Structure formats: structure tokens, C-alpha cells
Amino acid sequence: MRINPRAEQAFVRAVLWTLTAITVLILVYIIVFVLRKGIPALSWDFLTKNPVDMGKGGGIFSTIVATIVLTAGAILIAAPLGVGTAIYLTEYTWEGPVTRIIRFGAECLAGIPSIIFGLFGFILFVTKLRFGWSILSGSLTLAFMILPTIIRTSEEAIKSVPPVYRTVSFSLGGTKWQTVTRVVVPSALPGIVTGVILSVGRSIGETAAVIFTAGSALRLPTSIFSSSRTMSVHFYILAREGISMPNAYGTAAVLIIAILAINLLTYYLMNRFIKKYS
Amino acid sequence: MTNDIAIEVRGFSQFFGQVRKLKALDLDVRRNEIFGIIGPARSGKSTFLCALNRLNDLVRGSCHEGTIRIEGRDIYEPGVDVVALRRQLGMVFATPVPLPRSIFENVAFGARRAGIRGRARLDSLVRDSLEKGGLWEEVKDRLDTSGLKLSGGQQQRLCLARILAVAPEFILLDEPTSGLDPISTMKIEESLRRLKKEYTIVLVTNNTKQAARVADRTAFFLNGELVEVGPTAKIFTAPDDTRTDDYLRGRFG
After folding, report:
1. Chain A: nearest CA to B118, how far in angstroms?
2. Model ipTM?
3. For chain A, domain boundaries
4. Domain A42-277 CATH class label
């Protein structure tokens, strides 16, 4: 039996629209749910006071600081490594067995559950290298965890730079390095930044890898060797141990708002950047 | 007349892997002439240009035989500064490719890479180059807009101005007007006639009439071979080789 093309078109459209709507609804539901439960706990004091009594009272200031420092550390380590690897793979070597092995390795790394990274970080950084439960151990572990994402997205972004840009740069007497830094990377920047932002989001939300490596001390971190508790770990402990559900949701609300804000800000900056250069 | 040969090609073959793209070419380009190269698609014209500024080096598995001497120096000798060589031979491509930056920065790109600094110096360099490229009047009020916003013909003149800013001695053009309308084409050709006083120009074109209009001497390439080379008038009116005649009469290609 043949279906009338117009009916088919309408049917497919309806199905796809429904699927999209379901996705958006689930997302909106989660956000609204967390915000509704969490916003009552939010106040200036909640954001600026340290937790008291294991988190039953007070705010979450120290966990906000810990989250920012840990994430910044992870990005500072992983971004240069990842972007550098991507540049090497795309610009400085021909496609061959070696690049395939590196890429395969990175992809395997991406598939490893974060708790395994946590365990690895615990064994290597916390115990073997004696960094202890610390921001340093946590940042290094997170860095390894997000490295594959950064490599992959940077590589895709660099590959999508039109090859003629390179030819033009060379023909105008640009060296290899100048071509990479002045032409290729600026053109690939929106893609690279997107990858980095995805990684920021993952780092902020990561719990398993962090709890094993950065620990869960509630005081304000004073150095990279301080143990500290990020917002997501704080949320986990508050909820898991039944310390304070309102504060747990308050923390979750701050987390979600922070991630949304970072995404919006990045899109805004990228749009401005793209408008300026094209 | 003292030695007026600027580019001397002897027995030059270009390989990409197993494929021999250029076959034992012998030809000379004289100083301050427009040297036209005509021939059907895939006859090796562009490959020849990219052999002159060693852009072929960027292709995986490329190698060559024979020699190319530019101003008497073998450009494939070990120890040749390829970056300096490419500055010496500016190249305009078939499709205009402005870099995704402002008009000013497009023109200043090569100069900046060569280490030229200072606003005043760059300003005057950009102005001179755009004037020589015949684009200054049209863009002087919007140098900071993106080069991508210009029309096709303007973009191509921008690309021409961009290489002039690097102060080359040679200009290589790879079908520079293939995507342009007749008026834009005319403007480019005018620029070329002016520029040949200062530069030696190699013009690859698949528009034979363009070669007839602007080239002093013309070479006909076919399947990577040089079929014949000579004064443009002779190539177009009394070619020695029947294949040249056939091509010009549109029997193939």
C-alpha cells in the first residue's frame, strides 16, 4: 500500500515534533523542579556564608569557591593539553597509524565512567604522589576526565577551518606556527570554546571523580593542597545523609543557575566574536 | 640585452605519489613580462604555479625532478628559505579567499607575518597596496569591515593588494577571474597591465581570450606537458603544434 506523500509528511512532522517536545519538556521539568525546591533556600547569606553544622545551617560559600577553583584548575590543565594535542593531530602530522592510536586512546578515555577516574586519581595523585585529598588532586583528575572532550571538539573545529586559509597564509609568507596561531586557531575558536564550555559544565557537575580526590572538607580552601568540597559533592552529602534537603536543593539550584549562566554568556560572547570576524 | 630570464625551468617534473602531474618542463619566464599559461582543466597549470612557490610541498607525497631557478637560484636546493621564497612570489587563487578578518588586516597580514610593525608604516603600506590593486577608492572608508563582505571582484582585487603588501617580485595568478563578471575581469586585467612594470607576472587562465588580451608570451599545457611556448600573437595566429591550434579552435578541452 502506498501512503499519500502529503499524509506521510504530516505524520513524520507530527512524530518529530512530539519527540522534540518530550525532550524539551523533560529538560524544563527538571529545571523547574530543582528551582522550585531550591529557590526558597536561596538568599544572600546562603551564597556568602560558610556552612555550619555539617551544612544543616549557614550557606555554601566555601563549596562555591571550591567548585570554581577546582574547575578553573582542571580547565587550565586540560585546555592547553587538549588544544595542543588537537593542533598536533590536525596540523603537524599526517593521518596514519599513530594519529589513529592517539585518537582511539582519547575516545576510550571518554568512555570511562567518572568513578573510575576518581579511583585512578585517588590511587595516583592522592596516595602515590602524596597530594592528599586536595584541590590539586581533584583538578588533575577532572582534567584527565575532560581531556577527550576538549581534544575531540577542538579537532573537529580545526578540521572545519577551510584548507585554503592555510594555503593563503603560507602563500603570503606565513610560517607554519604563524598559520596555526593567526589563521587556524582564531577561525576554530568558536568550536574550541564550545568544547571547553561543555567541559566546564561537566567539571562543575562532577561528583564521583571529585569526592575521591578533592575530599569533602567543608572549610574554605586556603591552598591547592587543601581538601575541599564542591557544590555537587555538598549536594550529594546533604541529600544522601539526610542532613538538610532544603539546603541540598538550594545548592542544586545554584549549580543549575551557574551552568545556565555560563552557557548563555558563552553563546553571547561567541556570537559577538563570530559577527566581528565574518 | 643582459640576462633577462627571471624564472628558468629545466626538465622539471612534479609527482604526487605515483602520479606524474608535470612532465619534464623546460621554459623561461622573462623579467617584467606577463607570461600566460593556457590549457584545459587538469593539465598541470596550477601545479606548475604551486611548484614555483613550493606550495606543492604541503601536499602529502609530493616530490620532483629537475630544477627551477628563480633569479639564478635553485629554489629546491636544501637550505632555501621557503617562507622568504613565498614572500618573493605572491599568489592569487582562482576563488578569492579573503581571510575572515577586516580589509585592513587582510592586506596587512603578510606584512605583519614578515615582522613589519607600527601603525603608521602599516597604514601607508595598506593604502599603497590597495591603490596598486585598484581597490583603494572603493574601500577607503570601510577598511575595518570584514573582507568577506566585499563583492567577488573586490575580493579578488583585495587578494591582489594583499600580496603586493608583501613586496614580492613575482605575481602568480591562478585563473584569477574565473568566477568574475566581465567588468571585474576588466579591472583585474587593467591592474595587471599596470603592475607588469614593477613585477614579473605568471598568469594561468582557462580563458584563452584573456591570455590573448594581456599576456606577452603564452605557454600551452596539455596533460602536464608543455606543448609549445612563444609570443602570444604567434601562439594564437600561427601555432607550431596542431594540438595548440585544436585547443584554441575549441576542438577539445
Report:
1. 18
2. 0.89
3. 5-40, 42-277
4. mainly alpha
